[in-house]
UniProtKB/TrEMBL annotation:
InterPro entries: KH_dom-like_a/b, KhpB, R3H_dom, R3H_dom_sf, R3H_KhpB. This is R3H domain-containing protein. The lineage of its organism: Bacteria, Bacillati, Actinomycetota, Actinomycetes, Bifidobacteriales. Residues 191-201 have a biased composition (Basic and acidic residues). Gene3D superfamilies: 3.30.300.20, R3H-like domain.
Length: 201
């Protein structure tokens, strides 16, 4: 699936997806009797819906351990949008600021791995991540001027961060799954957006 899929959609289409997603989630909150405000819009040319907590206790149940529940809700919301529009959606769902906290934690994980790669001169493998998490790491590595690459198959796909002198190892690897290679001069990777279940699912 092309990473530019949402770029081809008009703002009207993206806002419609956000509106459909918001309606779906509002109905869900009514069913489970949770209190929360729903905000929607378009960010980075992607429809986004946020559930903002009125009462932290209830809404936190929609996050789950390591975001497992919000990931599942995002998938269901995307499917609800697809059912209405007939097109796949890359809608992003956030609950009570979870994605912001997640990004901050992942950026620190990436920085620690970058430091380790620099100190040891060896590639550093991170724990398996979903594509949303991998994208954050790839972006961070690119900002630091290093290279990274995704390996493996879902749900065990992971990122390797390479030291500055490890460029040749990245570029001459025999794997066909090179989509995760990133640096300040290269084209963006493509692997983190190729399925309906990507980016934070």
């Amino acid at each position: 699936m092309s990473q530019n899929m949402d770029v081809d959609k008009s703002m009207e289409q993206l806002n419609e997806e956000a509106d459909i997603g918001a309606d779906y989630l509002e109905d869900l909150l009514d069913i489970v009797d949770y209190e929360g405000d729903i905000e929607m819009g378009v960010r980075n040319h992607r429809p986004t819906v946020q559930i903002v907590a009125d009462d932290d206790t209830d809404i936190k149940h929609l996050i789950g351990h390591e975001g497992e529940v919000v990931d599942a809700l995002q998938r269901l919301t995307r499917l609800a949008v697809q059912q209405r529009t007939g097109e796949r959606s890359h809608l992003i769902l956030d609950v009570d600021g979870f994605l912001g906290r997640k990004r901050k934690k992942l950026r620190q994980t990436a920085l620690d791995a970058i430091d380790e790669a620099g100190e040891t001169g060896e590639p550093v493998d991170l724990d398996p991540m979903n594509s949303f998490e991998r994208k954050i790491v790839h972006d961070m590595v690119r900002e630091e001027g290093l290279k990274s690459r995704s390996h493996g198959e879902e749900p065990h796909r992971f990122v390797t961060i390479y030291p500055r002198d490890g460029a040749a190892e990245v570029l001459t690897g025999d794997s066909q799954q090179d989509e995760g290679v990133t640096d300040v001069d290269s084209a963006p990777y493509a692997d983190e957006d190729k399925t309906l279940e990507d980016e934070g699912r």
